[in-house]
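Run log // design_07
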């Protein structure tokens, strides 16, 4: 089953729903009988007030974000995967955390690939006293990878 994400960019609050979101989640958020994404009102601008724990938590989070904004009203917009254009806005808002200026996994892979290409082409200069051959470079890269994934 898919999930749901709530993102606030300071102007609009997007509720992204995966195309295979659990029907129970939809009922908890939108009420009994709302088990299909296509049946949800795409013009919805707020969640209904329901007695479910998930609904109350989500509304409380939205209310908090609204209070932090001050005078700006918070509007909720659905971004149903495969159904709403707002899913592209949601995807645009996703950014990778930089992890205190450490390399991201993709950056690390690019760096590793470039290093291997340089090593194989013979263009890499040996650093004095460090023995940076292919084996040493890969060992250092694997240590960096293990640190990146928390091993």
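design_07 sequence
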């Amino acid at each position: 089953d898919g999930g749901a994400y709530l993102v606030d960019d300071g102007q609009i609050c997007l509720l992204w729903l995966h195309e295979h979101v659990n029907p129970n989640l939809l009922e908890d958020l939108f009420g009994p009988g709302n088990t299909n994404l296509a049946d949800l009102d795409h013009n919805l601008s707020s969640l209904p007030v329901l007695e479910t724990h998930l609904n109350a938590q989500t509304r409380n989070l939205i209310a908090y974000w609204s209070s932090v904004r001050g005078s700006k009203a918070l509007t909720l917009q659905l971004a149903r995967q495969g159904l709403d254009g707002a899913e592209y806005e949601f995807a645009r808002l996703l950014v990778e955390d930089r992890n205190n200026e450490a390399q991201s996994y993709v950056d690390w892979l690019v760096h590793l690939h470039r290093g291997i290409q340089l090593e194989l082409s013979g263009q890499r200069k040996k650093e004095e006293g460090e023995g940076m051959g292919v084996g040493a470079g890969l060992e250092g890269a694997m240590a960096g990878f293990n640190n990146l994934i928390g091993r």
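The longest helix spans residues 53-69.
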